[in-house]
Amino acid sequence: MLNIEFLSDLPAWLVSRGFKLSEIDTQEDAVRVLRNAMLLAPNDAELSFLFARLAFEVGLTEEAAVIARFLSALNPYNANYVGFSCQALYAIGNTEAAEVEALRLVELVKAGLETKVSRLEEILRILGEVMIYKKEYLGAYKLFVDLAKVGLNLTVCLTMAADAFLANGQAADATGILGLHASSNWSRTFVVASLSQFRDSALRTGADIPSRHFGDHDSAKSVSISSLAWYGRFAHQLSEYLLLYLYTKRNNLVLETPEWVGHYFFELDEPLQKPYQHVLRRGQRKFLQENLRDENSAVAFNVDIFSPGGLSSDDWALGESILPEALRETVQSRLKVRPLWMPYLMPALEKLEAIGSTIIAIHLRRGDRVAANDITPTALYLEWLSRTWPTLESPVLFLASDDINIVKQDFAAYTPYSLSDLTAPWQNNEYLQDFFILMNCNILGISTGGFGAYAALLNQRARLFLSPAQNNQSIITFDPYGSSTKA
After folding, report:
1. 231: Cβ–Cβ under 8 A, 6 or more apart, which residues?
2. Which of 46, 115, 237, 428 has the fewest beta carbons closer than 10 A?
């Protein structure tokens, strides 16, 4: 006899099975299982929503968009359905429909009909991008200021308002709008604040930032990375850029990038990304790693690779070093600082050079690493300094940290200098002044995280590099492009 109770439970079981498959990197099987579940329960909106989300993640964006738009139309007061419809429509290039959905979602939230909306930041970002792309700068500014006034994520709204001013060439106004929010942890706020300062600084000095143009839609095989301007901060973005740059260089592809901090700081020349390419969202890091290690000859192009994560020593199994020696020239010649920023970068370095002939620069990251219990103890570097300082010719110590006042106290015996002791901070770009000194010191000590590591990759002057060993148990010497030993 047919077990009716079993049949009624089958869609739920298939959903559970589908998501277990998705968690172990078998997305295609997960999509197949969830599609079967949806066919068994065609009137289950939540099941269709789950299927559409997974389809979207594995690259079936057209199918996901059709389902998402249908669900949004049937459930116009469900903010999560409306929001996902916006995201999926935007991903397939239907910007007009995406804008309509985004505005619907905003009205739902403003009316208090929904207060817990996933992806709200993403939807506000899409809304801002669409309006800026349409050159509706003033309209975008007014909309996001109004949204900030009614309590919709103040930082995100002010960032998008500043983004509109930035796109309209009003860099100083963009900086002014952000104000104290420029130090927010939201990645786009960091990018807008930094880009605004680049442009404003160039205008003040009469310097010229080379203009950028969209890539050739027809003749070039290209790869883009739109998430470069939206996810992570400087070191994370730099790491992802290098991963994509090495991949495109190896496979004779054109790399297209958005307006991001690295393009302004370094002498890069990539074309602007073409809008609305197919987005590769799952398996992208593994695919890129295998290609760079000669484990996979397949080449993906004419795609936008979503936040693939950056380079690490694990990509080449190098242990404590970062990249293989064969890439030293490629990386260091590619990432050269634009000369027009030297008036903001050189004064601090020149003062250190006037104080001593051996510049020791140590970067100690705190911030989010404290909660993760992953900080490099200052005691490790203090012990190294106690042994090494007397042997150095006219040493001078420079410290860079996101908790500089506390860190400087620990090193007081060595009369350490920080950025504010040496020069006027370059508003919103102080981290680049620190980075430049780390790039040009004689001895570099780094801590957990990528900021110091990428300064080490670009430093051509240092005769010694120091790093915490695994689990921050000791200090080791290392070559960014080679091996490591205990210090």
Report:
1. 187, 237, 307
2. 115
Q: How far is CA 41 from the centre of its chain?
A: 39
Q: Which pLDDT score, from 0 to 100, does residue 367 have?
A: 67
CA distance 373 to 375: 6
Which has the higher per-residue pLDDT, 26 or 441? 441
pLDDT at 12 over 60: no
Residues 6 or more apart whose Cβ sits within 8 Å of residue 142: none
CA angle (416, 422, 423) in 5-degree steps? 150
The Cα–Cα gap between 82 and 161 comes to: 23
Q: Which domains does the chain have, with CATH numbers?
A: 4-205 (1.25.40.10), 222-311 (no CATH), 339-486 (3.40.50.11350)
How is 412-466 classified by DSSP, letter by letter?
GGG--B-HHHHS---TT-HHHHHHHHHHH-SEEE--SSSHHHHHHHH-SS-SEEE
Confidence of residue 317 (pLDDT cuts 50, 70, 90): very low
Cross-strand partners of 337: 266
Tokens 């370094």 -> residue: 266
* Structure token digits, residue 374: 């992953």
CB 207 within 8 Å of CB 200: no
- Cβ density class 334-351: b for 16+ within 10 Å, e for less: bbebbebbeebbeebbee
Residue with tokens 């909660």: 371
> pLDDT tens digits, residue range 392-447?
999 999 999 988 988 999 999 999 999 999 999 999 999 999 999 999 999 999 98
What percent of the chain shows pLDDT beyond 90? 43
The DSSP result for 200-224, as a single string, is HHHHHHT--PPP--BPPTTT--EEE
Q: Which is more confident, 18 or 250?
A: 250
Query: Which residues contact residue 151 at a Cβ distance below 8 angstroms, ignoring those fewer than 6 apart?
Result: none
The answer on pLDDT for 467 being more than 70 is yes
Evaluate whether 475 touches 381 at the Cβ level (below 8 Å). yes
List of residues 6+ apart from 244 with CB closer than 8 A: 223, 225, 255, 288, 305, 308
Q: Report how far residue 81's alpha carbon sits from residue 73's, in angstroms, rounded to the nearest whole number.
A: 9
